[in-house]
Amino acid sequence: MLKSANFRIGETILGLATLSLGLFIAIETWMTPPIAAQAVIGPGLFPALIAGGLILVGAQLLYEAVIHRLEAEEYPELDWRAVIIVAAAFASQLVILERLGWIISGAFLFAVSAMAFGSRTYVWNIVIGVMLSSITYVVFDYGLDLDLPTGSLVEDVIIVFGGTL
After folding, report:
1. 3-state DSSP: the chain helix, strand, coil percent, rounded to 5?
2. How far is 150 from 131, CA to CA, in rounded Å?
3. Residues 65-106: tens digit of each pLDDT
4. Which of 81, 88, 115, 129 is the most buried (most CB within 10 A)?
């Protein structure tokens, strides 16, 4: 029987929930019938990677909460200001996604989230955000043939400057 002082119920529940979610995603991914396509990367790759990550994180949380039983640490107080800013940025991204597209809205979300957690290099945050969202756009749109929104405003600008979609 574990001593109540060393048994951390919150972390145990979080570890079990994370592990269960990972196992559920893994089982559902493996049970999904294969698609007869000639793609190098199948549709089950990303769910399998996510499932594996969740299983590893859940197992580590359970290990630390139940087996390792470290003495309770002092945790910093939750920064509610940052949480609210990131939540508002995420909601804003959902609103602007169709009009401005994945690259701009993703860069916006990254830059605002970095600022909310204390980064003051605004231009660098925008540059990193554009690079990360551009990479994910290229991987999904061209590598996996899954369409991320280009954005109606961006499409209009491309057409005005003589480009084709």
Report:
1. 70, 0, 30
2. 15
3. 877 665 555 656 777 888 889 999 999 998 888 888 888 999
4. 129
- What is the C-alpha separation between 18 and 26, in angstroms, rounded? 12
| Inter-residue contact 39 to 89 (CB < 8 Å) | no
Nearest to 11 by CA among 70, 53, 76, 84: 70
SS3 call for 99: helix
User: Comparing C-alpha atoms, which of 93, 89, 113 is closest to residue 102?
Assistant: 93
Answer for the pair 43, 86: CB distance below 8 angstroms, yes or no: no
For residue range 19-66, list pLDDT tens digits in order. Answer: 999 999 999 988 887 766 655 666 777 888 999 999 999 999 888 887
Q: Are 149 and 97 in contact (CB under 8 A)?
A: yes
∠ at Cα 113 (110, 116), nearest 5°? 150
